[in-house]
Amino acid sequence: MLKQRVNRGFTLVELLVVIAIIGVLVGLLLPAVQAAREAARRMSCSNNFKQLGLGVHNYHSAFNQLPIQKSGTGLPVGGTTWDIPSGSSNCEELSALVGLLPFVEAQALWEQISNPNGPNKDGSSAVRPAMGPTPDNGTGNSNYGPWNEELQFLRCPSDPGTGLPAAGRTNYAVCLGDSIVSSTDGPTSWTLYKKDSNAGQMARANCRGVFVPRQTAKFRDILDGLANTVMMGEIVTDLGDRDIRTNPRPYGATADFVVNPAQCGDAAYINATRPQFWATTTALINSGSIGRGYRWADGNPVYTGMMTISPPNTAACVMDEGAYDHSANALAATASSDKRYGLMPPGSRHQGGCHVLMGDGAVKFITDSIEAGTQTNPMVALIHTTTAGLSAGRQSPYGLWGKLGTKASKEVIDSEF
């Protein structure tokens, strides 16, 4: 007797159902996978910040001071102003990250910088000064090897920026407080003259953050408490896409801007359908190698500075005036737009906010919605001998965010962040 043959294969309908189910599952899993990857990148970014925080504390233990933002070897022989590129001196343009190198396991790079004749990035040789030339594109400085090193502990894995036209990028910047004035020169003039009373008075009034350009700072200066004061913040590097966070627009006179910093993000200059980007008609400063976070060794705010004025991930701007001449009651023109005073908020590619490093070494995630006061309020601003905004010593007008950026304003942090 013949047995009936049973077909045990799948029908076409069954196969299509299985494929459809697999497609749905993949569609559901992909966002979870992406979220897991971003969580890992965010954790790695936070770990980098913890390493930097430990390095800052070890530096302070060794030298009883913080690494100086905008330090170096002064003007070259015959030099006129610090804002002119030089191949024979760094004009005190170096960021605090340079001095931090031996304390974050980058001793080899520090040896190249601190000794003369550091290697060029193209392998050629050249006569270079100890501590390097100015960290910019002038007089062949773009070929100086150490300034072009891409240091992994300065890079957040969530930021895709890489390569030219940047030199060595950084996603971490020092906190300069809640005022833009004196953020490039500190208590010095444009000739780096350090005994000018006007420049000193300006710095005392305006430089309210942990780091003061071209001036020694110590933990003892942080009277508001290390755990209540932002020491560094995360920044986004420029991708050449007209991002309002990374490609600053020139605003105009500093004295006009400080009375209302909300003017930086004026809707008239922003793309109406893509509010994270400038309108195509808006003039911007980026050209060549100028861009947010483009040079880790450069102490100017565009590259390695951040302020607690506007909340994270908001617009960046630069002002027309930069340094002050100690011998004249006037602003001195700077050589390049990246060496001007600027409103430089922190930011990141993470969703909803960015990391900050507190004075005690703790890493916090600050949301974009942090309470930042009224953005149309003037900032503390002593320009030469004239109070252009709020007078010195005033409480920060930028809410909890502003309080976190000031080190000695006797402000009580009474909110969670």
Helicity level, as a percent range? 10-25%
Distance between the termini: 83 Å
Gyration radius over CA = 24 Å
What's the total number of strands?
Answer: 12
Report the principal-axis shape. Answer: globular
Structural class category: alpha+beta
The ordered string of helix (H) and strand (E) elements is: HHHEHEEHHEEEEEEEEEH
- β-sheet strand percentage: 5-15%
Note the main sheet. 5 strands, mixed
Number of distinct helices:
7
**Sheet with the most strands: spatial strand order:** 4-1-2-9-10
Give the integer mean of the pLDDT values.
Answer: 86
State the low-pLDDT regions, or none. none
Describe the structure.
The chain has a domain at 38-62 and 148-405. It is of the alpha+beta class and 417 residues long. The longest helix is centred in the N-terminal third of the chain and has 52 residues, at 12-63. Helices cover 22% and strands 9% of the residues. A hairpin with a 4-residue loop joins strand 9 and strand 10 (363-367). It comes from Aporhodopirellula aestuarii. InterPro entries: DUF1559, N_methyl_site, Pilin-like, Pre_pil_HX9DG_C. This is DUF1559 domain-containing protein. Residues 114-144 are annotated as: Disordered.
Outline:
The chain is an alpha+beta fold and 417 residues long. Helix content is 22%, strand content 9%. It has a domain at 38-62 and 148-405.
Throw out a few tags for this protein:
5-stranded mixed beta sheet, DUF1559, alpha+beta, 9% strand, 417 residues, Pilin-like, Pre_pil_HX9DG_C, 3-stranded mixed beta sheet, DUF1559 domain-containing protein
